[in-house]
Amino acid sequence: MKLRNLLEIDFSLFFAALILTFFGILFIYSSGITSTGVLVSNEYIRQIVWAIGGTMIALFLAMINYRRLYDLSLYFYLGTLLLLVYTCFFGRLVNGARAWIGIGSFGIQPSEFAKITTIILLARYLDSSKKNQKHLVRFAVSCIIVFIPMGIVLLQPDFGTSLVFIPILLGMTFVAGISFRYIVFLSACILFTGIFMVLPLWQSYILQGAMPFLSIIQNVRFVAISVAALFLVMVIALIGVRLYKKQYFFWIIYGAAIITFSLGASFISHKVLKDYQIMRLIVFLDPNVDPRGAGWNIIQSITAIGSGGLLGKGYLQGTQSHYRFLPQQSTDFIFSIFAEEWGLLGGILVFTLFLLICLRLIRIMKTTADVFGSFIAAGLSAMYIFHFLVNVGMTMGIMPITGIPLLFMSYGGSALLSAMSGIGLSLSIYIRRYQH
Fold it and tell me: Treating both helix axes as pointing N-terminal to C-terminal, what angle do 334-367 and 413-431 enclose, rounded to 10 degrees?
């Protein structure tokens, strides 16, 4: 470790993260103020402690050579897997998810750190396999590396956090040069799974049964017959590929496989998802279906953001938060408070800072001479972008409520420490970007 390395860090990346963290502390404090001006929460004090700890971790990681993690990546990955499994059985139950390990008032969320260790191990694998394995094998192994922690997180169940692993997988495999057809295949499966999952809910709750044929997607017999028929089509097309060597037979198999996986996954999801998770999808389609229940959060969040106008109501002058209209306002809906009090211009400032972080990470990814470091930067960039788009989109009503925090700003030690750890790794890569 050399202290002079700290003078070579990417200061724009580092200070963008620090400014967002500072904004988070300010508005976590604001979220604890009532309409009478009484402070009823000390969350901001804890966030300050975590911010100091996260900054120290980031600077420590910047000083050490990130390549030391290459040989240790598997051990870190397996360690977080053990913590995730332990959490499933013995973790603290909060908001319907057993996702925290608690010791008294102190608790950590292992899934936040699992994202970082998964990125590091996947970067190692993609680096080590770039010359001697086929695209399909590389993509399949990459999926296994990512889907194992993702599946355990789903069992907690923490649907929102599990989703973050998908863009990490897609972003890193794309940068690694894996054939685009495999990336598109997985993306299409996810897209159609979402469509097939939402359509029955849409006709039942929004259309009030006006299109009953959409309900057959949830019918066991229909799904079984459809899957069997599509499987038969794939077998016939496979024979066509072998006998006639025609490309269109491959695309028939490709399309049929997407529909088969999507139908099966959407059917299973309806059986696995909890009632409150299904209601989140319904109120995303139309919050007024349950305006005083599941739709309350979205309606109040949109109201808060809209009432901020161009310049906002002023710091500590917000009404939606101080009158306690926004549930979970220091975590999931911190951006709603920010936009209400600092308005559109404040929101643009947050957008700009996150854009700067992502652009700097992409720059690091492109300029570093070490492929391992480049892949880590790609995974971190995908993680930050997804968190930002989903959380801010959720507060604006253009994304379903998933419980994904706004990194650096939302209250929570595990999310902040893992986000700052990612910044530290990025700074370490930047310092050594010209070293092989």
Answer: 20
Residues across the chain: 436
pLDDT tens-digit map of 298-351: 888 888 999 889 999 999 888 888 887 877 788 889 999 999 999 999 999 999
Angle at 404 between CA 401 and CA 408, to 5 degrees: 135
Q: At what angle do helices 110-128 and 413-431 cross, to 10 degrees?
A: 30
- Annotate 220-276 with DSSP letters as a single string: HHHHHHHHHHHHHHHHHHHHHHHHH--HHHHHHHHHHHHHHHHHHHHHHHHHHS-HH
Element (H, E) at 364: helix 334-367
Nearest-angstrom CA–CA distance, 150 and 154:
6
Q: Which amino acid is at 139?
A: F
For residue 2, what are the CA distances in angstroms to 61, 64, 151, 427, 436? 11, 8, 40, 14, 19
**CA–CA dist 313, 317 (Å, integer):** 6
Half-sphere exposure for 192 (CA within 13 Å, toward CB): 18
